[in-house]
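Reposting from the mailing list since nobody answered there.

I have sequence plus structure tokens for a pair of proteins and want to know whether others read the tokens the same way I do. The first protein:
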Amino acid sequence: MVNEKINLITDIEADVSPPFLSPDNDLKRLKIHHGDKIWILPVEDIIYFQAHGRYVKVFTAQGEGLVRKALKNLLLQLSLDRFW
């Protein structure tokens, strides 16, 4: 588990800066690609996630977009209280 988190931190350094993580290291904002636009959304605006090949589809009340990382990596960053 520790090795997975270390690998995850290495994988996300380029696209998750400190304001994106809460003090308990849960993700609080997410960078979502929607066509040629990028949205930065609070995680609480997300209704659900769906695996989409090597990416993750993110569904909100405003629409859907893609996160450019695998669902298994994203799951390690999400609050269990919010999504499970």
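The second protein, same order (residues first, tokens after):
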Amino acid sequence: MNPQFKIKISSPSKMTVGSRAQVMHGNASHTAGGLTKKDLKMVKGEIVSKKKAKGEKTNPWIKAVAKAKKELGITGFALVQGKLLTRAREIYAK
């Protein structure tokens, strides 16, 4: 091939605004809300903002249910109803 007629290969264009999945995979720089890759994380297979994930852990109702489960000796998954619900409401009210 003659060096004068080299084909110029262009890199694929990067989108600026995209979905959370596109931002996580590196195909877009940020979401419509302005979240970048460093602002996002994977939680249980779902892409959420780090700020939202942190807020869920500090939710007082979640803490009350966790404390009630511990007091009642319940481990693993449990529906919040019956004894667990009443105990969680008592703890939450305090």
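Reply #1 (J.P.):
I read it the same way you do. The chain is about 40% helix and 15% strand.
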